[in-house]
Amino acid sequence: MPAWLPPLLSLAASIVFAAVLVVETLNFRHTAARAGDDAAMLEHAFDLCKCAAGLLGACAVASIVFLARRLKRRLATVAAENEQMRQLEQFRRDFVADVTHEIRTPLTGIMGAVEMLKDHPERLSAQEREALMDVVVSQSGRLNRLALDILSLSRLDARRDSGKLDFAPDDLKVAVENVHAAFVPAAKLKQIELKLPHADSVTVPCDISLIEQAIANLVENAIRYSDSPTVELSLASLPAKAIIAVTDHGHGIAKKHQKRIFERFYRVDKSRAQSGTGLGLAIVKHIAHLHGGEAAIADTPGGGATFTLTLPR
Ligand code: ADP
Asked: How much of the chain, in percent, has pLDDT values that exceed 90?
């Protein structure tokens, strides 16, 4: 029932009630004056009271139903808001716990190395000192990457919440070519051939630097983790969407990991992924969602993993 119907019914009933009251009063006066009949007057008065009570009752029921429904809706909204607040609070707690855990590992490494360098320099050979300095440099780099990735995620969240998504049309082909050119040297260092088959221009409304960041995260992962001799970067254009794919032919990713791989801080092989932050794919997913698109993973036929970034045109 629409929200305006109960008060409207109530109003209509009140008008009918007032009209009936007027008519009955006039009728009552007229009859009483003409007949001087007490019994007829009493009967009319009784009918009038019954009519008034019935209409007032109908109005009261309509109003009570209306108020009860409104109250129920309000209670449901408050319950939903409370649940949302609870989930947000839980998310905040988990995030702080995750970040603290992620920060502790490199910090422990740095503190241990610095303490040894400071407290017992005489016991250390030049080679050991060098190794400890390497620990400090690599773990500081990891902390720095973690800070940058957390900042990226929080900027994406803030942008989504602000609703400022006035993207200008841009060519995805340029983004794909830029990322390809940037990663060819890194791929060569690992004896990986980074392929980019010819693709036509595809213009979509987007923030092109964010799209480049997302593609770069996918290509970097394929080079770093897949153990694939070739990695292929491709761009396809469909009537309603554009699909950027990064395909490798490496060891692939088990289905149980695929389900959770876009979660913050999720890593498949923790020992191999020490240098990563576990946030790269979460950033890709956020960038896709900010554009109204999707990030997905599938098995490459014949082995390996294919990551796709789908954007609406
Ligand atoms: P990280 O910053 O650790 O690289 P990501 O969110 O980018 O975090 O990736 C999550 C995990 O997914 C990685 O730690 C890695 O174990 C796995 N992964 C990502 N891409 C691939 C790939 N192409 N092949 C195999 N494993 C991958």
From this structure: 65
Q: Which fold has domain 1-164?
A: Helix Hairpins (1.10.287)
Separation of alpha carbons 59 and 53, rounded Å: 10
> What confidence score (pLDDT) does residue 1 get?
65
Specify the residue for token string 């480049």.
212
Residue 279 beta carbon below 6 angstroms from any ligand 1 atom: yes
Give yes or no for residue 276 CB within 6 A of ligand 1. Answer: yes
CB of 250 closer than 6 A to ligand 1? yes
- Of the candidates 113, 108, 119, the residue with the CA atom closest to the CA atom of residue 132: 113
Average pLDDT over residues 167-185: 97
Q: Is the CB of 281 under 6 A from ligand 1?
A: yes
Here the tokens at position 223 are 């080079």
Task: Say which residue the tokens 């707690």 belong to.
Answer: 93
Q: Where in the chain is the domain with CATH 1.10.287.130?
A: 1-164
CATH of domain 168-312: 3.30.565.10
pTM of the complete model: 0.76
Q: Of the residues 143, 146, 194, 225, which should be mutated to test ligand 1's pocket, given the most ligand atoms within 8 Å of the CB?
A: 225
Is the pLDDT assigned to residue 273 strictly greater than 60? no
